[in-house]
Amino acid sequence: xxxxxxxxxxxxxxxxxxxxxxxxxxxxxxxxxxxxxxxxxxxxxxxxxxxxxxxxxxxxxxxxxxxxxxxxxxxxxxxxxxxxxxxxxxxxxxxxxxxxxxxxxxxxxxxxxxxxxxxxxxxxxxxxxxxxxxxxxxxxxxxxxxxxxxxxxxxxxxxxxxxxxxxxxxxxxxxxxxxxxxxxxxxxxxxxxxxxxxxxxxxxxxxxxxxxxxxxxxxxxxxxxxxxxxxxxxxxxxxxxxxxxxxxxxxxxxxxxxxxxxxxxxxxxxxxxxxxxxxxxxxxxxxxxxx
Length: 291
Description:
The chain is mainly α. It contains twelve helices and two strands. The protein has a two-stranded antiparallel sheet. The chain is globular and about 50 Å long.
């Protein structure tokens, strides 16, 4: 038996993720000022004016009628999910989700922190919303029935993502094992006991490894980005390593999307990166044979 990774299959996953985001938007704290103050306003810090000012304005507007805006945001995301899940409306749903995703990336995620020096793949760069948009465009329905595989250019996106991640890790504040360990350690505050324990254990382990951990992380991210552009074998290896590393990042860097806070708006970036990896395997016509 062979598993074929098709545009329609990825569309269904995206639709379900949008439904999840819509449901998360309906959490109790989302109807209070906490959503604007703790989720949106947090993206203002250290940003240039062209990002800071629109976010500041959005926070002010949302705080005027938090409940109404929360219902609107939830309705938009639930609608996107439904449109994408139905084959006849998936094209329009994916286009609309790309536009909405960019808006959320700008205002809700501060362009993934790419302009304030806080971005790293470990902590969720470049932002889930951007990946929603990109993957959605890469699996738009086409009139050609034979063109059922995801777009080939998504392979380039995967490569840029990982090579960019290696570059981000070289920036001040990220360029040492101690800095990486401290970011992971900081996630322990407020996390459930088991997750806090994991964060602290990984942080201590990295410190004990010293510079080897930092050099290994950068090298692995760069390798994943480069190998995706080579032959089928190397591309599968790239996706496998990338997905495994993203699972680790999801736990110790992205705290499983902060599901325990009551203010989680999505599962964070790692699941979207994993979905992108699965998508690019389909883009190159690679079948996964299972017996």
